[in-house]
Every structure is written in C-alpha cells, then in structure tokens.
Amino acid sequence: MEQPQAEAYNLLRTALALFQKSPAHLEDAQLQQVRLQASKELQLENRVLNSSEAATVVISEQEVQNAFLEIRNRYDNDGEFLEELYQNRLDEDSLRAALYRQCKVDTVLAVVGSRAPTVSDVEIGIYYHVHTEQFRRPEQREAWHIFISINDDYPENTRTMALARLQQIGAKLQKKPYKFADLALQHSECPTALQGGLLGKVSRGTLYPEIDAVLFTLKEGEISAVVESEIGFHLVLCKHIQKPEILSLQKATPKIRQLMDDRAKRVCQRAWLAGLAKEADDRH
Questions:
Q1: Digit-coded pLDDT (tens) for 174-184
Q2: Which is it for the CA torsion 266, 268, 271, 273, positive or negative?
Q3: Of 78, 125, 174, 281, which is the most buried if we count CB atoms within 10 A?
C-alpha cells in the first residue's frame, strides 16, 4: 500500500476514533490533533510490520473481506459508501489494502501479547481481596410500568383524565394482577409497552426519583398505586428482587482472570513496542 493511501486511512480512522467525524468535518484544532496522532500511529505500525514477528504472520483474504464488509454494512447503499471513501482519498482497493495492513498489525500484536506470563490463582486471589468493592452487587429489582402522559393538547391526556385512566387500569390490576403485561400493551404510552412494560433490572437511582422511591418499597410481585413523575403517571410492578451480594472468589475468578490477562498482554506489547522504538533510534 502506498504511503499516501496509508496516511489517508489512518487519518480517517483516527478522526472517527477521537471525534466520531471524518476529517472533512473537523475544526482546524481537531484536525491538527488528528494528524499528529495518525502520524504517530503510522510510524508505530510501520515498525510492527517491519519486525521479524510480522514476517511469520499470514492474513487470509477472508479476514480482509470480513473487515471490509463490517465497514461497508454501516452504509445504506454502495453510492453512499463509495462517496465517503472518495471524500477521504480512498477507494475499495486502497481500503482493502489498508484493512490488510490493519489486520496484520493486530495479529502481530496478538502474537506478541500471547507471550505474556499466565496469571496464577494466587495473583487472582490477591486481586480479589484487594478490590472486593468491585465485586459488590447492589440490590436490583425487575421493574415494569404502565405509563400515561400528561398533554393538554389531547382531551384524554389532560392531567385529570390521564390520572383517571390509570386509576381505572390500577383497579383492574387489583383484581387481576397477572394482566399487567396485557394492559401495558393495550394502554401504556411508553415504547416498553411492546415488552409488556418491562423496564428491566435496575439499581437504586436508575429511574425517575418518584418511581425509584416507590419501586424500592414494593414487595416482590406487588403493584404500586399511581405514581406521578415529571413526564406523567405510572403504575409500577416489582416482579423480582435480587438481593445485594458480594460475588464469591469462585464467581469473580473468570472476570479477574480476563482483566489480568488483558493487562499482562498490554504490558508485554508495550515493552515490545518500546524495544522496536529503541532499535529505530539506535539505527539513527
């Protein structure tokens, strides 16, 4: 891949990573920052690709195709996709070449990372006892609701009518609480109506304060009286209560092992990259 094309791809990738915009839509200061970062990354990639480890790495056409399709599928049609490439001084061929390069760099770094020492059970145990707070799970409640908004532009949604409508639904639920999901689907004005009013498992402080305060006083399976929030009226169902707990070492081990393995790999990769940089400096 020619250097100008590699620079164009790195510039685009860095702009999207830093600012979620293509270079053409950046302010001057942002563009300067992107160019500096992209230049550093390009130099680093060149060192990786010139390493002895890179000589043993083979990238298949399928890997490149998968990476290509992942980008292509972000666009609605080929015209939009090709126009975006053109605006960033790329075309399909140069993009594939850039993706081949990126796949090779990633694979080389994965190979280097695989040299990291295996994390021992003792190290995992030490991490667990030093960072116990990370494994503390707060109480969670499976919350459902039926929502009616207040909107004076609609007669049925004036404050008085909205409250009366929800009170009627609440009266039905007092007799037939198992009808909650059906009544939510029929009457709730929240998109969650399609899931029977399911808000999901929530911790304290997640929902509107008025709903939160009521939800965490309910018993499992209990339905609240009408609750008013800043957006309207709600009936709240607490379907299940998950009590607070601290994950045991056994349950926490897979998460800790993954975290420590990833950290060890990054340390190994950084040391290797620093060695490449030193070799480059020595040659000069």
A1: 999 999 999 99
A2: negative
A3: 125
Residue 190 forms part of a structural domain: yes
Same domain, 63 and 142: no
Q: Would 125 be classed as within a structural domain?
A: no
Cα–Cα distance for residue pair 228/145, rounded to 1 Å? 12
- How far is C-alpha 7 from the geometric centre of its chain's CA atoms? 28
As a whole number, mean pLDDT of residues 153-171 equals 95
**269 lies in some domain:** no
Task: Please report, to the nearest 10 degrees, the dihedral formed by the alpha carbons of residues 61, 63, 67, 69 taken in order.
Answer: 60
Closest CA to 265 of 119, 125, 103: 119
Exposed, middle or buried, 225 (CB in 10 Å: 0-12/13-18/19+)?
Answer: exposed
Question: Are 98 and 5 spatial neighbours (Cβ–Cβ below 8 Å)?
Answer: yes
Per-residue confidence (pLDDT) for residue 191, from 0 to 100: 95
Q: Which residue has the higher pLDDT, 280 or 153?
A: 153
Are residues 70 and 158 both part of a single domain? no
What pLDDT, in 10s, does the model give residues 30-41?
Answer: 999 999 999 999
The residues near 163 (Cβ < 8 Å, ≥ 6 apart) are 148, 226, 228, 233
Q: Are residues 63 and 101 in the same domain?
A: yes
- Exposed e or buried b per residue across 45-79, where buried means at least 16 C-beta atoms within 10 angstroms of its C-beta: bbbbeebebeeebebeeebbeebbeeeeeeeeeee
The set of residues, in sequence order, having a beta carbon less than 8 Å from that of 220 and lying 6+ positions away, is 238, 239, 240, 241
Range of the domain at 29: 3-114
Q: Identify whether residues 141 and 107 lie together within a single domain.
A: no
Return d(Cα 149, Cα 229) in angstroms, integer.
Answer: 10
Higher pLDDT residue, 280 or 29?
A: 29
Query: Do 109 and 7 belong together in one domain?
Result: yes
